[in-house]
Amino acid sequence: AMDLTARRQGEEALLRAVEDSQIANRAKTEFLANMSHELRTPLNAIIGFSQLLDMETENPLNESQSENIAEINKAGRHLLNLVGQVLEINRIDSGELKCVPQKVSLSAIIDDAVTSMSDLAKAKCVSFDNLIDKNSDIFVSADPDKIQQIFLNLLDNAVKYNKKGGKVTLSLVEGGPEKVCVAIRDTGDGIPEDNYEKIFDPLYRLESHVKNCIDGVGVGLTVVKKFMAIMRGQVSVESKLGSGTCFTLEFEKWVD
Ligand code: ADP
Fold first, then answer.
1. Which atom of ligand 1 is nearest to the CA of 188?
2. Ligand 1 centre from 159 Cα, in Å?
3. How confident is the model at residue 57, as a pLDDT?
């Protein structure tokens, strides 16, 4: 009889713990959703008004003012994008965000992402070597907006954590008949093997990068992993300390 009572008590405690964690999770989701909304409104004002200032024709800005406004605008858009990504992580965790896979031209998206990152790369003296022909017919089953964000995040990292004069190479790699695999290789410092999993955790950053004050918050790779998962794909990492890192994305091939 004692055993039975103890077991029942154990089960009840477990149920209560599950319930508590569900309540805490809902509170977290709600908090992040509200927070993001509260952040977006002023950010949109910063972005919008900085644009207005730059378009001013009666009292046009001088060159240096115009440059400063462009920086404000860029920083505002960067923050807005980050807030958006945190919200997306949240919506995936709460089960609200699902993916309706469609036919996506991978080569076109990659070409776009490389083009839009080229200024940033130039500023850091890093060059892109995209070995994937933009006109090749590589179609995957995925969500185009999500894929775009995935490549932007990975290319941003590959540039940011690269060395001066470094290179970022994009190529297709063998992945079996129903898969399409893309490798993004950089020539940066690399990632220690015992951090291969942790770098995908929200807010996790390598100590060396925090110490060296390299900008970042640690949500980029979390988004990559979660987006890949809802598209039934995968991301993996392999690195050699001192010589570079390679992220591999595995997508489902589109079948007509
Ligand atoms: P963020 O770049 O904003 O810090 P991420 O989630 O994109 O956040 O990446 C998490 C951490 O993983 C980074 O802070 C960095 O320490 C490490 N990292 C990511 N990409 C690379 C890379 N290509 N080379 C070396 N380290 C990387």
1. 24
2. 10
3. 92
